[in-house]
Amino acid sequence: MVRKNPKVDLKFKYQKTFEVSLMIALALMIVAFKFFPDVEKPKGILAAQQEIVDVEDIEITKQENRPPPPPRPPIPIEAPTDDALDDIEIRDTEINVREEVAPPPPKQEEEEEVYFVAVEDLPEPIGGIAAIQRAVVYPEIAKRAGVEGTVFIEAFVDESGSVTRTLVVKGIGAGCDEAAQEAVMKTKFKPGKQRGKPVKVRMSIPIRFRLQK
Fold first, then answer.
1. pLDDT tens digits, the chain, 213 residues: what are they?
2. Radius of gyration over alpha carbons of the chain, in Å?
3. Which domain holds residue 190?
4. Total tally of structural domains belonging to the chain
5. Lowest CB count within 10 Å: 21, 98, 127, 171, which one?
6. What is the CATH number of the domain that holds 178?
7. Residue 33 maps to a domain
């Protein structure tokens, strides 16, 4: 077992040093209270005055409905003078029940035009279908949108070979339907015949729209 030399061991002197220090501190305190008993008091304590604020209760007011605006005064209309009334002729408005009234004229029944669908000789466009295709004006909006397809037009051809009206059976839009109708209306046909006699015929005509690539 190793033992430290008491002369070199510092912990050995801790207790003695602490006791001596405590005695010196107590002696200084006794001397201080004996020779300096009076301690100066503070000159005064500043007290801040509290500000009092009065809070008033505000009554909640209700908003009453405003009365409707008064009606506008009527616009005065000038009454006719006696001279103007003298110029007016007042006729008798009484109805004579015994008076004989002529019956209304009979309605003229319009004869509905009859167009044949199937005949011996169908109408033929002068110049063929190619003539109709050449008459077609391709709409610019359809070109820009890349619209292509076939429009089926029903043409009503009379006895002289003229197209009286057209109907769109199947369209593709973008202005192509109207362009096809206009081209068919401009085309002259050889009239259709039934038993060698020209008759009115309605027929379907395909109009193709193709973009050149």
1. 555 565 555 565 667 777 888 888 888 888 777 776 665 655 555 555 666 666 666 666 665 667 777 777 766 666 656 555 555 566 666 666 666 667 777 766 555 678 888 888 899 999 898 999 999 999 999 999 999 999 999 999 999 999 999 999 999 988 999 999 999 999 999 999 988 899 999 999 999 999 887
2. 61
3. 124-209
4. 1
5. 98
6. 3.30.2420.10
7. no
